[in-house]
Each structure stands twice: as structure tokens, then as C-alpha cells.
Amino acid sequence: MRGLFRWSGKWWPGVIPLVVLWGFAAWTSTLPLENDLASRSSAALRGSVLDKTSITVDGRDVYLRANAFSEAGRRDAVAAVDAVAGVRLVNDETRLVPEAKPFVWSAERDVVRLTLSGDAPLPALKGKLVEATRAALPGVEVADQMVLARGAPSRFEDAALLLIGQLGKLKDGKFAISDSDVALSGMARELGGRESITAALSKLPEGFKVASNEVKAPPYIFQAYKDPVAVTVTLSGNVPDENIHAVVVGSSSRKFFNEKVVDNLKNSIGAPTNFVNAVVPALGALSRLSTGTLVVSDRDIKLSGDALYDAAAAQIRSGLAKDVPQGWQVKADITVKPAAAPVDPTVCQQLFSELLGKARIRFETGRSDLDRDSTGFLDRLVEIAMRCPSAIVEIAGHTDAEGEEGANQTLSEKRAQAVVDYLVKAGLPADRFTAVGYGSSQPVASNDTGEGRTQNRRIDFVVR
Amino acid sequence: MAFLIAFHWSWLVGAFVIGLGMGWVAVVHRARGVSRPVTLLLSVLAGVLVAAAVACLIPGRAGYWVELLLLLFLPYLAGCAIGTWLRTLVVRRSMRMNSAA
């Protein structure tokens, strides 16, 4: 041993090649060593929930920069890198993700894209929200502008996913969560979309509440166009349900006695209240026009066209506003059709007979009140009466043979008088018309059948 | 340590071989040995370096390079010791044979 110690004094020359060897070793191994440590450190952090992770290796020292979502997560990440074989020191440059107060998240839809912005609690959930949005809106560009933050309310994920599921019903607008308050604004894609979104919001997780819901529905449109050339009335747009659909079409068929009713209506929810009570009188007003258009948009009624005579135009303008339910607005843009050329009394009689052959003047059952569905028909009769100003016309009322003769006589007189009153109200001189009741004495068909009795209940215009 | 040995084993073998050669030569080398004060000085220097390495006082790459140097010294010294011991055995044996002759 002493010999060994003695000889060790002569070992120093070997240090020179050793130092050269060390130089080579340092030159060639430093980068591979650093890369090896960096890759194994990254692998060690794979299970950790971190954001903006950056690992830099200097020799055997690791600089770890990352945003952690909890203090424990931060400590665990440092410990995981520290446990990597070969790592000498871990320079901990991690920090906690900032806490958002309030925690705000939003999804905003415009014409071409959907933008997710605000705060997201975890990277995995951020990705999940983006994926869910892409799945809910295929073909729509999804822009992710979310930033990670702590402080999300509990069950935030469920609430956000619920709102994302409703984005498809939105044409444009914004869904937002601020802590536990949900705020919605924008325009629904379809009629009923607003109601559907509101219904879905009832399933929001416990603790969340709808602070404001300002989603608007597109206007509820109903249209009718009376085309005198094609002799049609085209109904288009929306009606609330099958029953009201039938009521509107049935009412149109009665009011437009001469025109074919083209039904292009579809049933959609979201109609304003009292829809049918507004549309039916508006159709009645349209039936009095020679040509015209009716547009009902939500609670706004726009009627435009040509009335058959001056008094009719005035009656439509003032009458429709009174007939529609409260809260509905009427804008009537009515002009008067130029008066037709005067004709001889004989031609007038021919025109009366022709028109009365197409339809009948209707009355309330068993009474002498004119049915409102007959107003358009009566206006046509007024128009003809105006074309022969010199003609004296007898308005003859007839009934069927049902009931007592005396009552029928009275009813026929009253009904004839009601028609005369209508003509006088239209501006025609009262002395040109006489109301005569014939009861059931002049049947034109058999009173044994229902069809025959219907034909017998009539008003005739006889030019004297 | 195990990681460093596993990662640098080829360089360690090289250092051991250099040490073995130096040890082998040292027995018959005519050069002057290192004086006692210098040995003491070198020992202190080595101690300081070891202490710095253990305490991780030198940061980054420089720290790693110091560790590498110290690590290479270990097989070098072991090689020197083994080389010297083997050469001593050979020299003694030949001296014995010469004296017997």
C-alpha cells in the first residue's frame, strides 16, 4: 500500500490525456444529455394538468415553467421532474393560473363563425367545449379565444355544454355565463326557437340561473295576396296549428266567394296571442278590395290595395283598426279603384243576376244581421249598383218554407232592409232601392231538400 | 450517480484505460514525483471540487462538467492503482529472477 502511495506521485502525467478526454466527453455528451433529460422530464409531466409548459435543461439542471391549476398540482409537477433520473436540480418557475372573478364564458354566433371566448377552467374542458361546438354546428367555423382561468362555478361544464347544444337554434347572438348567471341575447333561427331555448334552459344545473333571456324570434309572418287576374287568393306564411289553419282557410273560402284560395300556409309555433282574431277581420278587409295584399308581421297588420268605392275605403281604414284585438297595429294603405263605366239598367240587371248566381248574401242564422263574411260580396253588388245611377232596384228577400209563414215574411223583409241599409251606407241614394219581403211564397227550388231550401233562402236584386 | 455511470460508461472506460497505462508506466518512469505540498494542494482542490459538486454550488453546464471531470477521475485513479500494482508485481518478479540467476 505504501508503494502504491509512493508511485501515485508519478501519476500526474496521465492527467493531461484525461483532461483531453474530459474535454471530448463534455463536448459530445452535453447536448445529448440535455435532450435526454428534457424528453424524460416532459414524459414525466404527461399526466399533470398544466398550461403553457416549458422545459429548459442547462447541464443537469431543469428550468420548469408552467401554469398549474392548483397548488397541489404545481407541487406534484415539480416533484415529478425532480424524480427524473439524472436531473440534479429543478428550478421551479411554475405559477398558478390566475383566478377569474367573475368567471365569464361566452359563445357568440355571427353570420359566418362562432367565437368561444372568456374563461375555461381546464385545458381538457376547453378542448371538449370546442369539440362539442363543432359537433353541434357542423360546417360553421369555430374560433377558440378562451383563456384558462381558475374560479369556475361548480358544474360549469354541464351548463356550458347545455348552452352549446342550443347554439344551433340561434341565427346570431350570444350565450354567456358569468359565475352562475346565464345571459342570452340574439335572434332565433326559426319560429319557435326562442321557446325551445327557454325550455332547454330549465335543465340548467343546480345553482345556475337565467339572468336575462333576450333571444328574439324572427317575425311571425302571415300573408295573403288577392290577384284579380288569376282570380286567386294566395295565403302564405305561418299559422299556429291545424285548427287555426282550418279556420283561416275556411273563412277565406267564404269571404272570397269568387277567388280560388291557394293555401301555402305552414303550421309553426310562436304566433302572437289573438292571432286568429286579428287575421280573420284582416282577411275580411282584404276581401273588400279589388286587388290587394295583406301582410301580418308579428302584431303589425299592413293592408294595401284598391277598394271598390270611396265609402268602402273609409270603412276599411277605420273599421279594421277597431276589429283587431288590442295591442295590434294596423296600417291600411287603401286607394280607390277608378269607377267603372256606367251601363244601362238592363245590363245592370244582368250583372246582378250573374253575381248572385255565384254566391249568396249570408245572414246570421235566423236573424237579419248581415254575416261579416258577405261584406266583400255586398261591395261587388254596390259597385254594380253604382254603374246604373238611374235604375230603381227592388231588393227582394226570400226564405225557405221551414217555420211559420208570418215569421218568414218578417225575416225576409228585415233581411231585404238590411241589404238596402248597407247600400245606403255605401253612399247610394235610399230612394233608388225598395226592400220587399216575399217570405217563402216564391221558391226557386224544392223545399223538401236541404240544398233546395238553401237556394230558396236568398236576396234578389230586381231592376225596375 | 447510476444514471451518470450508465450514460458515460464509454468515457469512463477510456479514463480507466488511461489510468491503467499511466499506472503501468509510473513504476519505471524517471520523472520527478509530485512534491508533498503540491499533493496537499491538489487534494484540497479535489476536496473543494467534490464539495461544490455534492452541494450543487456550480450551476448549469459548468456544474455538469465539474461532475464529469470528477467522475472521470475515479476510474483514472482506479486504473492507475491497478496498473501500478500489476507493474510492481512484474518488476519484483523479474528482479527476483535476476537475483536468482
SSE arrangement:
The complex is a heterodimer of chains A (464) and B (101).
Chain A: H1 2-8, H2 15-44, E1 50-58, E2 61-68, H3 71-82, E3 89-92, E4 95-96, E5 104-109, E6 113-120, H4 123-136, E7 141-148, H5 156-166, E8 170-178, E9 181-188, H6 193-201, E10 209-216, E11 221-227, E12 232-239, H7 242-255, E13 260-267, H8 275-287, E14 289-297, E15 300-307, H9 310-323, E16 329-336, H10 345-358, H11 375-387, E17 393-398, H12 405-425, E18 433-437, H13 450-456, E19 458-463
Parallel strand pairs in A: 2-3, 2-4, 6-7, 9-10, 12-13, 15-16, 17-18
Antiparallel strand pairs in A: 1-2, 5-6, 5-8, 8-9, 11-12, 11-14, 14-15, 17-19
Helix pairs in contact in A: 2-3, 4-5, 7-8, 10-11
Chain B: H1 2-7, H2 9-26, H3 36-54, H4 60-100
Helix pairs in contact in B: 2-4, 3-4
What features would you describe in this structure?
The complex is a heterodimer of chains A (464) and B (101). With 464 residues, chain A is of the alpha/beta class. Chain A has four domains: 18-96, no CATH class; 104-216, hypothetical protein tt1634 (3-Layer(aba) Sandwich), CATH 3.40.1520.20; 221-336, 3-Layer(aba) Sandwich (hypothetical protein tt1634); 345-463, OmpA-like domain (60s Ribosomal Protein L30, Chain: A, 2-Layer Sandwich), CATH 3.30.1330.60. In chain A, 39% of the residues lie in helices and 29% in strands. In chain A, strands 7-6-5-8-9-10 form a six-stranded mixed sheet, with helices on one face. In chain A, strand 12 (232-239), helix 7 (242-255) and strand 13 (260-267) form a beta-alpha-beta unit. The longest helix of chain A has 30 residues, at 15-44. The model of chain A has no long low-confidence stretch (mean pLDDT 91). Chain B is mostly helical. Chain B has one domain. In chain B, helix 3 (36-54) packs across helix 4 (60-100). Chain B starts with a helix and ends with a helix. Chains A and B meet through helix 1 and helix 2 of A and helix 1, helix 2 and helix 4 of B.
